[in-house]
Amino acid sequence: MRRLLITLSALFLLAGCASTDETNPLERLIQSSEQSDQAYEIVTSLTTEVGPRIPGSEADKRAVAWAESLFKSLQFDKVYKQPVRVRNWSRGLADARVIAPFPQQLVITALGGSVATQPGGLEASVVMFESLEELQQAKAEQVKDRIVFINKRMQRDRAGRGYGPVVIGRARGAIEAAKLGAHAVLIRSVGTSNSRFAHTGAMRYDDSVERIPAGALSNADADNLERMINDGHDVRLFVDMRAKEHGWQTSYNVIGEITGTEKPDEVVLIGAHLDSWDEGTGALDDGAGVGIVVAAANLLKQTTGAPKRTLRVVLYAAEEIGLVGAREYARANESDLANIVVAAESDFGAGRIYQIDTRFAPDALAEATTLFDALAPLGIVKGNNEASGGPDISMLPAKGVPVVSLRQDGTYYFDYHHTPNDTLDKIDIDAIRQNQTAYAIFSYLMANGDIDPRPAPQLGSAR
Amino acid sequence: MRRLLITLSALFLLAGCASTDETNPLERLIQSSEQSDQAYEIVTSLTTEVGPRIPGSEADKRAVAWAESLFKSLQFDKVYKQPVRVRNWSRGLADARVIAPFPQQLVITALGGSVATQPGGLEASVVMFESLEELQQAKAEQVKDRIVFINKRMQRDRAGRGYGPVVIGRARGAIEAAKLGAHAVLIRSVGTSNSRFAHTGAMRYDDSVERIPAGALSNADADNLERMINDGHDVRLFVDMRAKEHGWQTSYNVIGEITGTEKPDEVVLIGAHLDSWDEGTGALDDGAGVGIVVAAANLLKQTTGAPKRTLRVVLYAAEEIGLVGAREYARANESDLANIVVAAESDFGAGRIYQIDTRFAPDALAEATTLFDALAPLGIVKGNNEASGGPDISMLPAKGVPVVSLRQDGTYYFDYHHTPNDTLDKIDIDAIRQNQTAYAIFSYLMANGDIDPRPAPQLGSAR
């Protein structure tokens, strides 16, 4: 972590200077952050010195050591790990080719958790459906012994609203295809770019039906396959996937705290997830989040000193394979959850934050005006009071824990999400700095002020 | 070619209708082209029904059959093939990983024609140079037993002027590194995108030095490696490349002609190359060119009938591995070259044409005003008289053959060039239609008019 520490030390001196002036602490913190590339440097360190880190792998263990070492080098008051049992899976080769009528290579990747094909691969004709729903309505004779191709295209949207309607095909495609006797399922990637990458991501099986291999085609390859099929051809594919399960491993939630000076038992939690998929370097998903929350907490500590409440930074394990670290965190800390005053997670890349949604006790919303006003100069507007807070804290509001969603511009997030192309160069340094400043402001005001938004309101079944 | 023929037939009817009106023939041709997606449909057919087509491969043979069938289905007057001997090379696996200090996968590809690594791959420390020139000035003790990394970055430019200064490292890197005892050479890709693709392309060996494996890293991976090295680490890589030479094969220049009505021995030549690298589908390089020149000739034939001079469309073999088809064309047709009134090649993607450069006998430039005037409404300005004409006709001016360069906007061409990402979706349908119209205008005026720009002027040593 040499590279990082040099620049962090330089920053420390700078912050030390700034702390002597007469402006108010929040202003000093904002100035400090606006002069700091710390979030960017942390994600640079993580992607360069660890790289991809799929849960339970050797690289995941190195990521845990990196995170622990980072918190310690930044002299957080408490640094500890929480063990999490994870199933380790490796992708292996994923090869697909058109055999007939027009032999050519396709770009695919295995969906996370998929079984392998039989040794030597499989060959079958393709049947195309426009959506999971269309597959569900198909007859077995259309599907039996074939490769199912689900061709639903994701729509681009700032808030990522194109994801939900399409990701269901990734999650359940193998189950629905297997019910009708398919040999394998391939989906059009859940992604918005025309760069020729296939997007991986978690999928599920159902013990009542056969486990069949599941993969994703890049958008360009899905287009090509679609053209062949729409031209009336019986398209035969060869698919060879060599994914493997490696059994249970231990990973860790890595936690760093700055202990509160007045109310140490009251906790402001900011989080991100430490794991990533294995093909990119996990820069946007979620190295950016790691950089943002660690830098925000560290800038606060360096610039304004320990806050009144405890500021806890949680780097969750194994988010990608089903929020495994987050569920363990909620389980192991169940008796402590009532002490969490508010939680927020950064896990949507490094785009600028444009809105703050909350899930605060309605009475506390008026007090929170100081928070909304402090964020406004960053271009962040007040949103609704129905926030989910982010994947790893999504189970907390049901336990009464208030959450905030600092909503990032995700217009381009799904161009890179879960692909080999999720690398450091996709992060805009000014945009990640704006995130860092917003999390610093949020952390400062929630950990030093009197806002207590507990308990989170429970939302209707509409959520 | 079912898909293509349906739409071409529909267009034929449309063009038939248009030909009954009273406007002048060139106006009718322009109108026809502006209503036609023919170039786009041809490249769609080639990329969908053939796909990648490396010289001498089975796919290359299918491309030759496709091209012959296309000319015949379009009822060109003469369709013939010219055999070309090519060496067939296959890429095989290309794997590279950082072993120490920060183990992670890198994205590489083999340079075209590279030898394989020894079985089982090789492991060595990396030495980085900022350019080929810096490598040439190095001492053997810096380089011996290492992997050389040439880290020169290509600059984006509309005219592609960033290519030349960088491609020399791709061409000669293996020679210069081997002279100093390196085990292998990796270059930063010759490409302008931050999409995580490595760019392949031809490289050379020199019989006087050892042949060492040569590959390219994606820009993102070159960045990562550069960071590790600049942080002072001894970076060790594992590289495994399994490229193979498969010996001599026969490929073909495929040629279609529309015989001239008045001066059949005088030839207007428009060309593109039929082969492609093996990772993309060869859409921009050079399916687009194939679509543009075939569509332009076909629209001319359908709309205005056979021209006075012969219009010859040459689809060259094996451009990518060293202009092999073009050299054979020039050799085999040497006695006929004097009959070529003018030649033009489309081989720079599908961006809009913004300029016409010529290499015309100076006396003919005044006559050529009709050509410049006809192209101006397409946004094409008159350029210089020092055109090279394009790779496959670059050897013709020295033989006195006049050439034209219809210069395309290449701002984004090197984002995709020689990568798996060179696929159909990168072609803008309006831009390729503008190219088609420009080639149709050029073909019509040069094949029907009195402009005779022979002989091409010989340029000074400055070129």
Q: What attributes characterize this protein structure?
A:
homodimer; 463 residues; alpha/beta; Aminopeptidase; Glucose Oxidase, domain 1; 2 domains; eight-stranded mixed β-sheet; 14 helices; 34% helix; elongated
Question: How is this structure best described in words?
Answer:
The structure is a homodimer of 463-residue chains. Chain A is 34% helix and 23% strand. Chain A is an alpha/beta fold. Chain A folds into 2 domains: 2-89 and 247-448, Zn peptidases (Aminopeptidase), CATH 3.40.630.10; 92-242, Glucose Oxidase, domain 1. Chain A has an 8-stranded mixed beta sheet, sandwiched between helices. The longest helix of chain A has 22 residues, at 283-304. Chain A starts with a helix and ends in a 15-residue tail after the last helix. The interface between A and B is large, with 38 and 39 residues.
SSE inventory with pairings:
Two copies of one chain form a homodimer.
Chain A lengths: L1 H17 L6 H10 L3 H12 L8 H16 L4 E13 L3 E7 L3 E3 L1 E3 L11 E8 L2 H5 L3 H4 L3 E4 L12 H17 L4 E5 L25 E4 L1 H12 L5 E6 L2 E15 L4 E11 L9 H22 L4 E8 L7 H9 L7 E6 L7 E7 L4 H4 L1 H7 L5 E2 L20 E6 L4 H4 L12 H20 L15
Parallel strand pairs in A: 5-6, 6-7, 7-8, 11-12, 11-13, 13-16, 14-15
Antiparallel strand pairs in A: 1-10, 2-3, 2-9, 4-8, 5-9, 10-12, 14-16
The total count of helices of chain A amounts to 14
Per CATH, what is the topology of the largest domain in chain A? Aminopeptidase
- In the predicted model, the low-confidence regions of chain A spanning at least 5 consecutive residues are 15-19
End-to-end Cα distance of chain A: 42 Å
Helix percent of chain A reads 25-40%
In the CATH scheme, the class of the largest domain in chain A would be Alpha Beta
